[in-house]
Amino acid sequence: MKSRIISVLIVFTSLHTIAQEKEPAIKTFGKALVDKFPTTRTFDVQYEQLGPSNYNSDLFGNNFERGRIESHNRFKAAFNLPFYASKSKQFVLTTSLRYKYETYEFGDIYNYTSMQTYSRDRQELHLWGGSLSATYMTSLFKKPVIYNATATVDGDEDGFQRLKGFVSAVIVLKRTPSTTITLGALALLDPSSIVPVTPLFSVNHKFNNSKWDMDFILPQRLLFRRELLENGRISFGTELNTESFYLNLNTSNLNGVYELNQLELKSGITYEYCFTPKIIAFVKGGVNNVVSARITEKGERTNRYVYDQKEDAQGYVRIGVSYNLFQKK
Q1: Which residues form the DUF6268 domain (predicted)?
Q2: Cβ–Cβ under 8 Å, residues 321 and 45
Q3: How far is CA 149 from CA 98, 146, 154, 315, in A?
Q4: Across residues 59-86, what is the average pLDDT?
Q5: 3-state DSSP percent of the chain in helix, strand and coil, to 5
Q6: Distance of CA 59 to CAs 10, 67, 125, 246, Å?
């Protein structure tokens, strides 16, 4: 699931240059993709603060720890830039960079094996990634089709960790003033992926005689949105997000480089404000539910985990600002 959602976002990232395409259908579709995902704009910065929560964990299927996370926050920065486009604008090369800084502060922790309570130092984690995407836009049965191939690398403060890739194809099945429907498929070139091929499907529908619209993207989100005040927009709904980072461990049980993959279901409210056609800020908040938090050996499938953690629901607040170099009035 982690690879699936991240790859969907990378697909949309690589497609943001479609907004420069002269063909109206593709141009409209591309602008819609940039509008959905702030991280696909030229520059994007976000900060997230999560509330305290209790957790319980297993190691190799046995009770390991229970404790409390007192403070948890994330800082993210993203950069996307198309550096080559054919004269017809049908073929585009895009580079993307990502950085994340994540911190945890813990309360008392109880170890089931030693039957002792202890404390843990503040943890600071870094994750960086880069990708190169090739996108080709054409038509099939008079409908816009977008093909994409992407190679990504990522790592932590200790250096490079993994190389991944995927290929995808998306077709715009329907595009009217009120409804846009897309369908596609994505093949992951990642040995740690449980599902090598996954479907892509999205629906955006504006309700008749209403300021509301529905935005559904499988498997990432279901939002209901409307304009609020001048240059603003409010959204209600649920989004499925993934978080991951690398751990360099040297303990009696775990020795080497491991990956923590966390699946989060965020429900709440978002307000976006457009300061200029190029600069957009947002604030969102609500309830965060950790669906899954597992540690695997680097490159292993997530169903072959060595560590599993259950965590209580927690409140969260996220703020961000993005700049889109290619946005026009």
Answers
A1: 45-323
A2: yes
A3: 18, 10, 17, 37
A4: 94
A5: 10, 65, 20
A6: 32, 14, 21, 17
In 3D space, the residue among 111, 41, 21 whose CA is nearest the CA of residue 81 turns out to be 41
* Closest by CA position to 303, among listed 264, 261, 265: 261
Single out the residue of 175, 194, 177, 196 nearest to residue 185, CA to CA: 196
38 close to 322: Cβ distance less than 8 angstroms: yes
CA dist 72 and 199 (Å) reads: 33
Q: In this structure, which amino acid lies at residue 215?
A: D
Cα separation values, 141 from 170, 199, 205, Å: 13, 20, 23
Compute the distance between CA of residue 208 and CA of residue 178 in angstroms, rounded to an integer: 8
pLDDT digits (tens, 9 = 90+) for 17-39: 444 344 444 454 445 444 555 67
Task: Please give the pLDDT value at position 41.
Answer: 80
pLDDT band at 89 (very low <50, low <70, confident <90, very high): confident
pLDDT greater than 80 at residue 186: yes
Amino acid in position 248: N
SS3 assignment, position 29: helix
Do residues 127 and 120 lie in contact, with contact meaning Cβ atoms separated by under 8 Å? no
- Tens-digit pLDDT profile for residues 35-65: 555 677 889 999 999 999 999 999 999 999 9
Q: How far apart are CA 230 and CA 274, in angstroms?
A: 9
